[in-house]
Design brief:
The protein has twelve helices and eleven strands. It has about 290 residues and is an alpha+beta fold. Strands 5-8-9-10-11 form a five-stranded mixed beta sheet, with helices on both faces. The chain has a three-stranded antiparallel beta sheet with strand order 1-2-4. Strands 3-7-6 form a three-stranded mixed beta sheet. Helix 4 packs across helix 5 and helix 4 packs antiparallel against helix 7. The relative contact order is 0.16. It binds iron/sulfur cluster (SF4). The site of iron/sulfur cluster has 14 residues, from helix 5, helix 9, helix 10 and helix 11.
């Protein structure tokens, strides 16, 4: 299904500024990253839990962010914790652990640098009368399934009028996981719906290479079914059962999951920790408003 050899309209070297930014940001401490991304993200540590609260405007508006689709594919239970741990009354925040926060900050910083690079390049080319047919970081919406997200890069072919979607990841993995595939296909779906253009394929680009992801067959209905599943998960009052979680399918995933301090407990301890977080929320809300 996947191939590294398929020609891409944009060569891999075009993404070097992104990779360099990842390399630079990966060497920074968490405090330095927090400082660099302070305008982009509002973050608050929940004392004594190793968890962080991040404000999300799209969640507040009731949208599912495309990047959260990969969290669901990773583990439905973790996805539920991210959205619902603070209870029903709290909207517009997500919870993440230290590991997820670091990845989020490195990715945010690298995306910011890349966006500046593409915007500079495209405006220069346009001032010279050339159109590079590239679009970056548009906030797109699908009102049918309540999906929204910032697409990293879209190339629209000027002759055949099809689009190619690029999803940049700050990882070094030499193979693509289901989580990334679900994410890039969701972006293809979103671009097609929001921009009224036929998407032919997507690419995952990371620090090790570029992979072609076809978007020509069953992928559209696959994404629609996934979105329905995600919506069903969000309205649940309790987390998905153990059988539905990564703990059964692949316990290795739990080793790097910050929610294991809640999830791998007995039901009573888990509920206690959840209510403690809800009690702490007024303070978190006050800080996030600043
Ligand atoms: S500890 Fe494992 S099962 Fe629990 S939320 Fe994390 S990944 Fe999922």
């Amino acid at each position: 299904m996947l191939s590294k050899e398929q020609p891409s309209p944009i060569p891999y070297r075009f993404f070097f500024p992104f990779i360099q930014s990842v390399l630079y940001a990966s060497k920074l401490t968490l405090s330095e990253l927090l400082l660099l991304c302070r305008r982009e993200l509002k973050i608050r540590e929940v004392r004594g839990t190793n968890l962080y609260v991040v404000r999300s405007r799209l969640h507040k508006l009731g949208f599912i962010n495309v990047s959260d689709i990969s969290s669901y594919v990773y583990c439905p239970r973790r996805f539920w914790y991210m959205y619902r741990l603070l209870g029903d009354e709290v909207k517009g925040v997500i919870i993440c652990d230290r590991y997820q926060l670091r990845r989020l900050l490195v990715g945010t910083y690298a995306h910011l640098c890349f966006r500046n690079f593409v915007n500079y390049l495209t405006s220069k080319l346009r001032s010279l009368g050339a159109d590079p047919h590239l679009y970056t970081e548009d906030e797109l919406y699908d009102y049918e399934y309540g999906l929204a997200g910032h697409v990293d890069l879209v190339y629209v072919d000027p002759h055949e009028d099809y689009a190619v979607v690029y999803e940049l990841k700050s990882s070094y993995r030499r193979r693509v996981h289901d989580t990334y595939i679900a994410q890039v296909l969701s972006y293809c779906y979103l671009v097609e719906k929001a921009k009224d253009v036929v998407v032919d394929r997507g690419y995952i680009v990371n620090c090790s290479g570029m992979w072609r992801i076809p978007y020509a067959g069953d992928e559209r209905s696959l994404i629609r079914d996934l979105l329905k599943e995600v919506r069903r998960c969000i309205i649940k009052d309790e987390p998905p059962s153990e059988e539905e979680s990564a703990r059964v399918e692949n316990i290795n995933k739990c080793r790097v999951c910050g929610f294991r301090c809640i999830c791998l407990q007995d039901l009573e301890t888990e509920k206690k920790l959840r209510s403690r977080l809800v009690e702490e929320f007024p303070e978190i809300r006050r800080v996030l408003r600043r």
